[in-house]
Amino acid sequence: MSEVLEGRSALITGAAQGIGAATARLFAARGAKVVVADVNEEGGKETVAAIERDGGEAIFVRADITSAADVEAAVAATVGAYGRLDCAVNNAGIEEQGSALHEVTEEAWDKLVAVNLKGVFLSMKYEIRQMLAQGGGTIVNMASVAGLVGLPLGISDYSATKGGVISMTRTAAIEYVKQGIRINAVCPGVVRTALLDQAIQGGMFTEEQAAGLHPTGVLIDPADVAETFAFLCSDASRHITGQSIAVDCGMSAG
Ligand SMILES: NC(=O)c1ccc[n+]([C@@H]2O[C@H](COP(=O)([O-])OP(=O)(O)OC[C@H]3O[C@@H](n4cnc5c(N)ncnc54)[C@H](O)[C@@H]3O)[C@@H](O)[C@H]2O)c1
């Protein structure tokens, strides 16, 4: 299994920290050549350094996924460095402080939609153009359990963006299946990252309450979500497309 991504090129957005960084490190450990894309230059370079320390191959590209020019350049940088774009993980995303829907400002809504939904749209747009030109590829989008079920956490706006990613994934998968492009999404439960710390600090819940959302009562590690991204980019999942896979300890099953 360790060679499943051997020799493939992978563009991973939001890879300066959290789930994206864990995914970049796992992909490199499995033999992929990784492009770490993020607005956070310092963190992105740290991810590259960590990959290189482990004997892997990676470059950093500064890219804001809300900018078409940045995303197009990130895809071009991947092709420039590694010849093609085999795998794309559209992971970058944000979450505002939880607030009831009637208190969400227009500015907060626009910012959330710009990163979580438009950012994934732009990423897919330029990734698909490259994959059509080279004859195939694999895309995995980051959604959330919040896109699958209703949660009383003041995240209606965030849920809407993740539900949009799930719908876009499903329809795009059907549209490009005959061109050899597989498109799936991953829907994590509550993962130990800075995003979680931010939600705890913002008063959305305590760490115990967050863990209690999972039937198992434990939080998820970024590396566990990374494993699902690796599977969905590997040939082991070659018959899987258009799916949104929950990595949520059964949270959405009840
Ligand atoms: N942590 C969780 O519990 C959880 C659960 C479900 C889904 N998710 C999703 O997982 C993804 C990663 O979250 P995380 O928890 O690792 O968060 P994180 O805040 O630790 O990392 C997010 C990364 O995305 C980058 N980023 C933000 N806006 C960007 C932009 N416009 N362009 C490029 N990069 C940008 C940040 O700089 C950061 O490096 C997000 O899409 C999030 O919605 C997280």
Automatic annotation (TrEMBL):
Keywords: Oxidoreductase
Molecular function via GO: glucose 1-dehydrogenase [NAD(P)+] activity
Keyword tRNA-binding among record annotations: no
CDD domains (UniProt xref): SDR_c
InterPro entries documented for this protein: NAD(P)-bd_dom_sf, Sc_DH/Rdtase_CS, SDR_fam
EC numbers for this chain: 1.1.1.47
Pfam families: adh_short_C2
Family to which the UniProt record says this protein belongs: Belongs to the short-chain dehydrogenases/reductases (SDR) family.
Protein name: Glucose 1-dehydrogenase
Species name: Actinomadura violacea
Organism classification: Bacteria, Bacillati, Actinomycetota, Actinomycetes, Streptosporangiales
